[in-house]
Design brief:
Radius of gyration: 34 Å
Largest sheet: 6 strands, mixed, barrel
Shape: elongated
Strand content: 15-25%
Structural class: alpha+beta
Strand order of the largest sheet: 3-4-9-6-8-7
Number of strands: 11
Order of helices and strands: HHEHEEEHEHEHEEEHEHEHHHHH
Distance between the termini: 33 Å
Helix content: 40-55%
Length: 412
């Protein structure tokens, strides 16, 4: 009952000066809407970074052979290192920290099916490529051991290649395409990935995968492997995996372990970890900005409440003269501040949700993630709103409660 009386008196006080109340509430409405949007966008951004950064793969290490800098074992420095298929077995046999390893020879070729032509990124790979690059089959199958053993002329098409070469209604799996006049059987079609934040060698939907043995025999005409990709067993310890792989290759290819120029390395696992950290920092930053914005609105509420206390000094004196205690005056003004912030907060949450829905509906780059309206976002906004109400109402309420009734009654 006391609570209802406080709310009723607060509403009467607000309606007695509608313009001032509305202007005061606007600051809190905007602050609450900002908090809802920024919290939602922060969660959406973190989720997008986690998803998109791993769409290309769960994090792997890229290795390229370069020139040996120093002499070792009587062999001169400056020689060019060359990877061959046997290096894949060396890594598998001597590097327990390497979970998957694949060759990554790739060239751009025109793929032909009937009268249709499409330029695609042809990858010579093995079975581990599906796990390293996070490839999912839509139709058919991926490469199998017998495909590599027999150097079979088979191919797995990315989604964009399939759509260009086999329009709706045409069956891709089981058909044949030609690359440089050589016929390859389509054994699989990959699910569409779309744009990803981390891409190696172009969009994944424009890539096609063939056995590395077929690539070397029919397309490149060489025994050399241009690139090896390794996925660590533990993504958080990719540096240890790199050192282990470097040591195994140094022994196999006869170069010094500490020769940093012999093999060029790109650690995508660490890059993805950095993206996760950046996403978390941005989420914290936008949350702080939103809370600060709401506190600015709270300062406006406090100023108006202080003005209200001054204007109603005589009213406070009368209430105290007829028996009102300090706690009653305190509850009255604190209730008014909480009522203002509560009403403003509810409107602000509604406005923030509408902004989130509009932002999610319009076309935008992948980096501009769609805000997530969740129970966490709403609960967080409500909690901040209550804290702002207490912050805005405490000082004016205590000032009113400490007034001397005699001095208050003398006020004109």
């Amino acid at each position: 009952m006391v609570f209802l009386n406080v709310v009723s008196e607060s509403l009467q006080s607000l309606t007695s000066n509608r313009l001032r109340s509305v202007l005061t509430m606007l600051g809190v409405v905007w602050g609450t809407a900002s908090v809802v949007f920024l919290l939602g966008w922060g969660r959406g951004f973190v989720r997008t970074m986690e998803t998109e950064s791993r769409t290309a793969g769960d994090g792997y290490v890229i290795l390229w052979p370069k020139q040996v800098r120093s002499e070792i074992g009587g062999r001169k420095g400056g020689r060019q290192l060359v990877f061959e298929l046997k290096e894949i077995d060396v890594i598998r046999d001597h590097c327990p920290s390497a979970r998957y390893v694949t060759t990554a020879n790739d060239l751009w070729y025109v793929i032909k099916h009937g009268s249709r032509l499409k330029r695609g990124h042809i990858h010579g790979s093995n079975l581990d490529a599906a796990n390293i690059y996070n490839l999912n089959i839509e139709h058919g199958r991926f490469l199998q051991p017998h495909d590599l053993k027999d150097s079979r002329r088979v191919i797995v098409l990315g989604a964009d290649l399939k759509e260009a070469l086999f329009p709706r209604g045409y069956q891709a799996v089981g058909s044949r395409v030609k690359i440089r006049g050589i016929s390859f059987e389509v054994i699989g079609v990959l699910k569409k990935k779309g744009d990803t934040l981390v891409e190696s060698g172009g969009p994944d939907d424009e890539k096609a995968y063939i056995p590395i043995t077929s690539f070397l025999r029919h397309l490149s005409g060489s025994r050399n492997i241009t690139q090896i990709d390794v996925q660590p067993e533990d993504q958080h310890h990719s540096r240890e995996c790199i050192e282990e792989v470097r040591a195994a290759l140094a022994k196999e290819l006869d170069f010094a372990f500490d020769d940093a120029e012999a093999i060029e390395v790109i650690d995508l696992a660490s890059i993805i970890g950095s993206l996760d950290t950046m996403a978390l920092i941005i989420a914290v930053f936008v949350t702080i900005v939103g809370v600060i914005t709401l506190f600015v609105g709270g300062v406006g509420v406090m100023n108006i409440m202080l003005v209200s206390v001054t204007e109603r000094t005589r009213e406070v004196g009368i209430r105290k003269a007829i028996g009102a205690k300090r706690r009653h005056i305190l509850a009255q003004f604190l209730g008014e501040a909480l009522t203002i912030t509560a009403l403003s907060g509810i409107v602000g949450i509604a406005v923030g949700c509408v902004i989130c829905l509009i932002f999610a509906a319009v076309p935008r780059p992948t980096i501009l993630a769609a805000p997530e309206i969740s129970a966490f976002t709403i609960a967080g906004s409500l909690l901040v709103m209550v804290l702002i109400g207490l912050f805005a109402g405490t000082l004016p309420a205590f000032r009113a409660a400490r007034m001397d009734p005699v001095d208050s009654l003398r006020c004109e």
